[in-house]
Write a structure and sequence with these properties.
Layout: H1 26-41, E1 46-48, E2 58-61, E3 73-83, E4 87-94, E5 97-107, E6 109-115, E7 121-127, H2 128-141, H3 152-175, H4 181-185
Antiparallel strand pairs: 1-2, 2-3, 3-6, 4-5, 6-7
């Protein structure tokens, strides 16, 4: 298996809608496994296929905590079939929006229908962090980022910071980094 590169905003591929999986075959299972490995390495608790540049309706997540034991969940074609009227606010982050967090309001409970890793239809009732995570990852399949749920002012500020960070990283890559720590801290190199 291989770690997959995670796209970061404002990459336009993150805004595209994913296509349904026709069957959960060996290729889809390999994608799920590689996504899970990538998510753990990041580290994260959820990852959607568009975040690794694959426009298929596939998500993986693992929110195991002391009080909640779900184990890894691998879902093809997940869809929310029921949502509670009660909302909850949760501070969300995202591997595609690194180092930025914001309160997002979503339904407190949802029921999700999906195909598991073996292609078997499943339904699961979700609440708490699991409900938030499932909704967050399904949003990715529709080209929606968590920052699309916050004010335009805050969203644009985050996107500007991400774009600036990307340009700085590209510039560092083009210029090369100092060969040693001594070069980086040598007073002769200080402006």
């Amino acid at each position: 298996m291989a770690l997959l590169p995670i796209l970061t905003a404002p990459d336009p591929r993150l805004k595209k809608k994913s296509k349904p999986v026709e069957t959960v075959d060996a290729d889809v299972r390999r994608l799920m496994d590689e996504m899970l490995e990538t998510m753990y390495a990041a580290p994260g608790i959820g990852l959607a296929a568009p975040q690794v540049g694959v426009l298929k309706r596939v998500i993986v997540l693992d929110i195991d905590r002391e009080e909640v034991k779900t184990g890894p969940l691998l879902m093809a074609n997940p869809e929310i079939v029921e949502a509670s009227d009660e909302d909850v606010s949760y501070e969300e982050g995202c591997l595609s929006v690194p180092e930025h967090y914001s309160e997002v309001v979503r339904p407190a409970k949802v029921k999700v229908r999906y195909l598991d890793r073996d292609g078997v239809a499943q339904e699961m009732a979700c609440e708490g962090l699991l409900a938030t995570c499932v909704q967050h990852e399904i949003d990715h399949l529709d080209g929606i980022l968590f920052i699309d749920h916050i004010s335009a002012l805050k969203r644009n500020m985050i996107l500007r910071k991400l774009l600036k960070a990307r340009k700085e990283k590209e510039r560092e890559g083009a210029e090369g980094k100092p060969a040693s720590i001594h070069e980086a801290t040598d007073p002769a190199h200080t402006l």
